[in-house]
Amino acid sequence: MAELSVKHLLGIKYLNENDIQLIFETADHFKEVINRSIKKVPSLRDITIANIFFENSTRTKLSFELAEKRLSADVINFSAAQSSVKKGETLIDTVNNILSMKVDMVVMRHPNPGAGIFLSKHVNASIVNAGDGAHEHPTQALLDSYSIREKLGDVAGKNVVIVGDILHSRVALSNIFALKLQGANVKVCGPKTLLPKHIESLGVTVETNLRKALNWCDVANMLRIQNERLDISYFPTTREYTQQFGVNKKLLNSLDKEIVIMHPGPINRGVEITSDVADSKQSIILNQVENGVAIRMAVIYLLASKIK
């Protein structure tokens, strides 16, 4: 059986193209499973997985939990906001206490970039990064690419624009790595204040005019404005951001071609995209959510096969 080249999923930058294709082929199989009347498989009956979330994330957490339960794994949920971490316990102590309960895999969301990498060097379990600060969010990028492949047949050669707050977005970074690895052309678009200085070094081009970017692309991935991360004002008002970088139906209909609209969620309706765009037939936002479960099942299954 083909297997992943890595023991952990810490970021897309540690994967190769074969890893991504293997994850997608495995997800194809699991997508059939979750659309059957009996949605569970006994694949991971003897595996215990701990979901450790040091930051709130309803959708990612639910998606992982559902994926784990569909695979029949034993699941422990740990919310650090209500835990001993508040009493001063270190990350390694927290995780080692959980691992002493014979946990095989840890799915972790953490506000600090590199937390998963740090942990993988100190604990004896497979680590899945469910988002580390403004660094990476690998399963989101995988489900985004998988959704493009499903809609357009392939990722290679497609023009994808990522619009919005690139500076604070782990989704943007992971997507850039994943899309480039699969041979897509990538542009980023947003206010200059929200574009990292050396972003072109990742092999992407910068476009500050939204209409030009949309006319160029096959797919537009609209990022959420993360108000909770914006410690200073990066643009004058939300209304002004929306006027320059928000997508509405009128703008979509005025383009030279029909493009695919994506959003990692949760959506600020009326800010990044209007409701009529979010709910239009060009939007694959709900497909992304469904594909998230299949992709996370694939990742967990493939990593678990390296534990046994």
UniProtKB/TrEMBL annotation:
<feature type="binding site">
    <location>
        <position position="265"/>
    </location>
    <ligand>
        <name>carbamoyl phosphate</name>
    </ligand>
</feature>
<dbReference type="Pfam" id="PF00185">
    <property type="entry name" value="OTCace"/>
</dbReference>
<feature type="binding site">
    <location>
        <position position="140"/>
    </location>
    <ligand>
        <name>carbamoyl phosphate</name>
    </ligand>
</feature>
<dbReference type="InterPro" id="IPR006130">
    <property type="entry name" value="Asp/Orn_carbamoylTrfase"/>
</dbReference>
<feature type="binding site">
    <location>
        <position position="109"/>
    </location>
    <ligand>
        <name>carbamoyl phosphate</name>
    </ligand>
</feature>
<feature type="binding site">
    <location>
        <position position="87"/>
    </location>
    <ligand>
        <name>L-aspartate</name>
    </ligand>
</feature>
<comment type="function">
    <text>Catalyzes the condensation of carbamoyl phosphate and aspartate to form carbamoyl aspartate and inorganic phosphate, the committed step in the de novo pyrimidine nucleotide biosynthesis pathway.</text>
</comment>
<protein>
    <recommendedName>
        <fullName>Aspartate carbamoyltransferase</fullName>
        <ecNumber>2.1.3.2</ecNumber>
    </recommendedName>
</protein>
<dbReference type="Pfam" id="PF02729">
    <property type="entry name" value="OTCace_N"/>
</dbReference>
<feature type="binding site">
    <location>
        <position position="60"/>
    </location>
    <ligand>
        <name>carbamoyl phosphate</name>
    </ligand>
</feature>
<feature type="binding site">
    <location>
        <position position="59"/>
    </location>
    <ligand>
        <name>carbamoyl phosphate</name>
    </ligand>
</feature>
<keyword id="KW-0665">Pyrimidine biosynthesis</keyword>
<feature type="binding site">
    <location>
        <position position="224"/>
    </location>
    <ligand>
        <name>L-aspartate</name>
    </ligand>
</feature>
<keyword id="KW-0808">Transferase</keyword>
<comment type="pathway">
    <text>Pyrimidine metabolism; UMP biosynthesis via de novo pathway; (S)-dihydroorotate from bicarbonate: step 2/3.</text>
</comment>
<feature type="binding site">
    <location>
        <position position="170"/>
    </location>
    <ligand>
        <name>L-aspartate</name>
    </ligand>
</feature>
<dbReference type="InterPro" id="IPR006131">
    <property type="entry name" value="Asp_carbamoyltransf_Asp/Orn-bd"/>
</dbReference>
<dbReference type="GO" id="GO:0004070">
    <property type="term" value="F:aspartate carbamoyltransferase activity"/>
</dbReference>
<dbReference type="InterPro" id="IPR036901">
    <property type="entry name" value="Asp/Orn_carbamoylTrfase_sf"/>
</dbReference>
<feature type="binding site">
    <location>
        <position position="137"/>
    </location>
    <ligand>
        <name>carbamoyl phosphate</name>
    </ligand>
</feature>
<feature type="domain" description="Aspartate/ornithine carbamoyltransferase carbamoyl-P binding">
    <location>
        <begin position="7"/>
        <end position="150"/>
    </location>
</feature>
<feature type="domain" description="Aspartate/ornithine carbamoyltransferase Asp/Orn-binding">
    <location>
        <begin position="157"/>
        <end position="302"/>
    </location>
</feature>
<comment type="subunit">
    <text>Heterododecamer (2C3:3R2) of six catalytic PyrB chains organized as two trimers (C3), and six regulatory PyrI chains organized as three dimers (R2).</text>
</comment>
<dbReference type="InterPro" id="IPR006132">
    <property type="entry name" value="Asp/Orn_carbamoyltranf_P-bd"/>
</dbReference>
<dbReference type="InterPro" id="IPR002082">
    <property type="entry name" value="Asp_carbamoyltransf"/>
</dbReference>
<comment type="similarity">
    <text>Belongs to the aspartate/ornithine carbamoyltransferase superfamily. ATCase family.</text>
</comment>
<feature type="binding site">
    <location>
        <position position="266"/>
    </location>
    <ligand>
        <name>carbamoyl phosphate</name>
    </ligand>
</feature>
